[in-house]
Amino acid sequence: MTIHGNTNGLSPSDLHALERLYRRRVPFDRLLTPELARSMAEISASTGRQVGVIADRSGHVQFVVVGDSSKLMLPDVGRVRAAQGRFRGLRLIHTHLTPEGLTRDDLVDLTRLRLDLVAAINVGKNGEPETVHYGHNVPVAPGSSESPHRTIGPLSYQALIGELVQVDPAALIAGLEQEFARVARTRVVDAKDGRAILVHVCEKHDAWRAEESLRELAELARTAGVEVVDQVLQVRDRIDPKFVMGRGKLDEIVQRSMQVDASVLIFDRNLGPAQAAAIAKAIDLKVIDRSQLILDIFAQRAESRDGKLQVELAQMKYLLPRIGQKDDSLSRLTGGIGGRGPGETVLEIGKRRARERISRLESELEKLAVQRRNRRQRRNRRDVPIVSIVGYTNAGKSTLLNALTGSETIVEDKLFATLDTRSRRIRFPEEREVVITDTVGFIRDLPVDLFAAFRATFEEAQDADLLLHVVDASDPALGEHIKTTEQLLGQLELSNVPTLLVLNKCDRVPASEVASMVRARDAVPVSAIDPSTFGPLLERLERMLFERGSGVVTRSATGSDELDLDDAIPPSITSVRLTAARPVEEAPAPRGPYFDDAAIDALIAGSGSKSAPAAAPARTRSRAR
Ligand SMILES: Nc1nc2c(ncn2[C@@H]2O[C@H](COP(=O)(O)OP(=O)(O)OP(=O)(O)O)[C@@H](O)[C@H]2O)c(=O)[nH]1
Ligand SMILES: [Mg+2]
């Protein structure tokens, strides 16, 4: 039976008296009992310190706390959750040594810990209870200036005990929970990962991108399977180093979380380990940052072995500095958003084991990387051009790949629909074929460790003869998306690969705007959902890939005695018709590693690589057609 708080210098008999408080019962339908009130007052008077108990709804005392003359520091009650409801199912009953109502600290605890109720017993000079104040949370409309608490008192202790004044917390709380529920009328019950409030805090000079950024965060949250119930935006002169925002705003958010019944706060920025812990401790909600959200999506979606290992490694690296933070905010993460995927185990293990796991993952991934490099070297002796489709997430890369090749890779109106990339081939007239590969979408401020994971998926793109940079022309953040993609391509050492900018989703943009964007950016317009728009794209593609002096050099096999690729290419491309790029029969659906090497080998072999033995028959067959 732990006595929490400031126990220094207490006599054994005081401690004993405090321990005995654990045996008291406080029925849920009574504010307090005379036995409890008198013993608490007595100990307070003898120690000169505030004394409190935290009782649950069945009337048991869960915590006994002792403070100093003017305040109590409450222990972490985070894991003693009420089964259901907006409140924690706990009441704080404590003493005050000066005649006063509930203090600001009392009200903050009330909100922060979502207590059912806080009661303060004023202890008189004679060491007897004199008056009682109590308070509880009330729902207020967002943005309203009304107080989120209701406080009642002073009530005469004698009147309370004599039941001249009747207070029934059970009935009170039942009514309040209904009231809160009514405010949160919009509730949808089937969200499997809880309800979240998005929080964007920025300094003034960054305010211009806040709205767009929140919109993207909402998309990410939706992709992760979280229901967004509210969004909070705060522009500050300076980001608070400890809590990011001000304490007042934090309290407001907790209040709001009760109204809309949210259990998760998702920050639209990356939080340092100490920040995350401080915030989680202060508000006692699950706190997730942008990196964690993205990691969570990857953890849910990675399918291949390589992909899974990469995600686990990224999660481990993210979590390592967070293990053993003073208020272990990770303990709130088990299960659900932020605590999913292979990295979940890290929540139970210590730093040392986590480090061991990291080095094991790294060496496994290195082995896979070596295998991939070897394959790529073998494959370099080829003459089939490779085109990689790159671009911001949700730009329509997979849709375009499907439409160009008549295949069916996953297309979803979600961010990071594609995590395990696919390759397909398309055939141009005159038997010229191209292998086209899809890639993982880019996003702003990609967590560093995830970027490392990304890197592997783009190794293949380094062999590409051409990048199709697909961008959603209808997105207001188009310019930002292009910039981010270009930056990340640079970091992936892909800046040197010839690139064609493809303005996608032109069906959503007025033609005049498309025309000016095409001119300004030397781009090709398409609508990936409408193949009748592919003409200009195919023409440009063919010109860039096959025309002499196009600047795109297709590697050809050295020492081969077969035809040079050029010989097989007629000089004219004027005959390109829309139907020209017919899908080629089945491409085996590559399953990870991110980039399925065997599948690409097979594709290339099937397309007439001079170095691959399978090439000749493939080519003969297609010629004969
Ligand atoms: N209106 C319209 N919608 C499109 C077009 N191209 C793609 N979409 C839609 O945009 C959404 C995203 O398409 P995807 O092909 O999954 O995008 P992606 O770039 O592969 O996305 P990630 O794999 O998540 O990076 C889907 O809902 C598509 O149906 C287009 O040209 N016009
Ligand atoms: Mg995709």
TrEMBL record:
Keywords: Coiled coil, Cytoplasm, GTP-binding, Magnesium, Metal-binding, Nucleotide-binding. It comes from the Bacteria. Monomer. Associates with the 50S ribosomal subunit. Residues 385-549 form the Hflx-type G domain. Residues 351-378 form a coiled coil. This is GTPase HflX. The keyword Cytoplasm applies. One of its GO terms (cellular component) is cytoplasm. GO terms for molecular function: GTP binding; GTPase activity; metal ion binding; ribosome binding. GTPase that associates with the 50S ribosomal subunit and may have a role during protein synthesis or ribosome biogenesis. HAMAP family: GTPase_HflX. It is found in: Cytoplasm. PANTHER family: GTP-BINDING PROTEIN 6-RELATED, GTP-BINDING PROTEIN HFLX. Belongs to the TRAFAC class OBG-HflX-like GTPase superfamily. HflX GTPase family. The keyword Transport does not apply. InterPro entries: G_HFLX_dom, GTP-bd, GTP-bd_M, GTPase_HflX, GTPase_HflX_N, GTPase_HflX_N_sf, P-loop_NTPase, Small_GTP-bd.
